[in-house]
Model the fold of this input.
Amino acid sequence: MDLFLNRVFDGLEQGITYGGIALALVLIFKATTLINFAQGELAMLGAFLVYVLSVEQGLGVWLAIPVAMLLSALLAAGVERTLIRPFDPADHLPLVIITLGLFLVINSAAGIIWQFNPRAFPGIFPSGNALRIGEATLTWNTVCMVGSVLAVLLLVELLLNKTKIGLAFRAVSSNLESSQLVGIRVGRTLQLGWAIAAAIGTFAATVFVARPILFLEPTAMLRVLIFASAAAALGGLDSLRGAIVGGLVVGLIQSLVVGYIEFIPNELSLTIALLVILGVLLVRPAGLFGTARVERV
Amino acid sequence: MTTATDHDATSDVETPPTAPAAGSSGLPRLIEHGSRAHLIYRIVGWASFVLVAVLVPFIVATPVVFGVGDSKFTIGMENLNHGIAYMVAVLGINFLIGYTGQISLGNSFFLGMGAYITAILVADYEWSYFLTPLVVIPACFVVGFVVGIPALRIRGLYLALVTLALAVVFPSLVKLDSLADKTGASNGKVVRSELNSPIDFEGFGDSLARIKGIGGWFSGIGSRQENAIWSYVLVTLIAALCFLVASNMRRSRFGRALVAIRDNETGAAVSGVNLALYKTVAFGVSAALCGMGGVLFTMAVGTLSPDTFGINLAIFLIVGLVVGGVGTTWGPVIGGLVIIFVPHLTSQVRSINGYELTGDRPYGTLFLGLLLIALTFVLPGGVVDGFHRLRSRFVRVVRTPPKELLTGR
Done:
């Protein structure tokens, strides 16, 4: 029982990160039906910014995080304007190619600047245990990670549902052409979506690598991107809450399956993500919370 | 048989004689399709291609070293063979992305699969390289076919997502403990099976070296170089066979059905194309071609490590396809060379304008990524398209419609 609880807590901690990156993926997908394959790398870059600002420049970590979020949001807005907007959103191949190119560029640029040796990241949440059930311990780190990502979700939901910008965003994601006709500046709205997504990604990546057992390195987010894609697919690619729920489910599956089924070694945990994506897309392509798409021919 | 000019059935050859009238300088020169001039044009094109393919191995058999500034660049036979293996893999991807319009990012999986099956058969079971395709092709075809089944319900970006996960999974599968005694896990797998040349290339190399003027390029063919040239000959012939098969398939009923699916899925289905069958078979064929790329990879490189076949390679193959030209016959040839030579040459650059570069950092990858993004903007059709556009300024092949059409009967 104690071991089970520990594995659940562990799964929650991983899962909430997947949920955070999935949230960023979903935000972009909602608006443009584009999966940003460079999302994980953008988030990794953001985490490196936090590292540089806090460890190398001596800024307080809680000041460094918002600054890094702002910087990565600006970067993403620039990327959207220069690399994404010139292309027809309905033609997938060039956009996939651009985001894959971004993946290579960001990943290798990080490798060139910071090299591939892992770095210890400063802890950002209080250490110690929040809860003890028998031998099982729920650390403050887990609580704060889950809480903070949920807070981010709440903020995004508020932004989308209570503000005029959010209204514009929802209009664009529900019908791009009509919203253009009623005078919404579609380009800017999508740009905002990219910026917010990058900021969320930076936050999620930062709390992820700030876990005591993890290190920051340019390849840190690759696996996370695949798990986050599984989470987003499970949640239904256009549902914000679905992304978080999907992330938690994928994290729990990973932690419990690897923990309990002996013939599945840890290396195969990525395969689990693949199977989750496949299973969801085959059985329920719209995911748990997503809206089913109907195609007009 | 494919021709140098006919890279895609639809483009290049202009059907009605509406091509702009020849300018005052006589350019572009119009060549009538099927005429004698066209025949000569094709023969000259092919002959120069074959000539380059025959001469190049003798040049690089002893690694070519040249310096620019303080950087020294080396190009050897193994780079060339490596590139040819990637050509076949890009050809496989082209089949799926270029012809069928299915965005699949996971074909590095099949490249790795083919390479590992070959390595295990040759190193552990002492098979000959030539027999390994008998296992690799069916195995990759079946796995590709199975992977293609979800593609019936998953489209566009979702498919890209699933297949990308496939690419990421491959290294972790190879590293599994239960497979470690076969695959060598993280230590990789080394194949020590020399391809001994039965042909006397030394004599040919010597006679090449006696040519006045350029003879100096072809020096130093010894017995070691002979084996290197022999491996090039084998790799090239197998690759050429793969290209021939793929290009003929593209022209067959099957290939035309695939293009119909790419251009308009609903339309294709209405015209009687069995979508499910054709799409899954296209996945299988593509996987089998990538598997053949893997066979050549093992022949050319001989050392496999699991992380070679990860997500970076998956994206590199896409880079190759895009740089060469999506959906063209000759794009993969350019693509395979780009994948291997761009990182290889950039890694040898020591400094740019006094700025020192350290060798072990991924400048090559950065450059490939920038190239990918830049080409998507500047030359969406890839190098092949650029070449065709350039060529059409000088020479155009036109078809004359039958006389009945011209007289308007």
The first strand of chain A starts at residue 119 and ends at 120. The mean pLDDT of chain A is 84.
